[in-house]
Amino acid sequence: MRKAGILAVILLLALVTAMPALAAGKLRVATDATYPPFEFIDENKAFQGFDMDLIREIGRRLGMEVELINVAWDGLLPGLLVGQYDLVISAMTITDERAQSVDFSDPYFATGQVILVRKGTTDIKQPSDLKGKVVAVQIGTTGQFAA
Fold first, then answer.
1. 56 domain-assigned
2. What is the pLDDT of residues 94-118, one digit of tens each?
């Protein structure tokens, strides 16, 4: 029952957010397809993953074609704001800053931050141990904000 309720809320938000697209019968959906298992491009160059399955189901239930557009992470929200696509689905963490400019569905998964280090590294056990070290993060993500 909980899954059905969450899907219903997501469908409703998708419907409201995509009102202009309804007239065209097509949802233009942006994703950064580099984050398995949520979104990725398989060996046949097809979009795959949990988010891809979800947006296809939303499109099916709305009776709309879904056009998936692969966009670099840091271009997702700027492109949405200028109307390049109707919505974004890309395993995005909801933050207060992002919520000031876009509407989010109810969350459908929980996430957090982790630190990955080279095998054998013993001097990094907590975030404060990273001070003075070179840290790689993806631009515009909550990983960058945390770093």
1. yes
2. 889 889 999 998 988 888 888 888 8
Mean pLDDT in runs of 10 for the chain (147 residues)?
A: 62 60 81 96 98 96 96 94 94 88 89 86 89 83 72
Contact (CB, 8 A) for 77 and 101: yes
Under a CB-based contact definition with an 8 Å cutoff, are residues 50 and 21 in contact?
no
Let me know if residue 105 belongs to a domain: no
Q: Which domain holds residue 128?
A: 113-147
- Identify the CA nearest to 89 among candidates 46, 59, 45: 59
What pTM was estimated for this model as a whole? 0.69
Q: Spell out the residues 6+ positions from residue 32 whose beta carbon is closer than 8 angstroms to its own.
A: 39, 70, 71, 72, 73, 76, 90
The CA distance from 54 to 74, in Å, is 22
Same structural domain, 27 and 91: yes
Q: Is residue 107 part of a domain?
A: no
Strand-strand pairing, 26-31 and 87-88: parallel
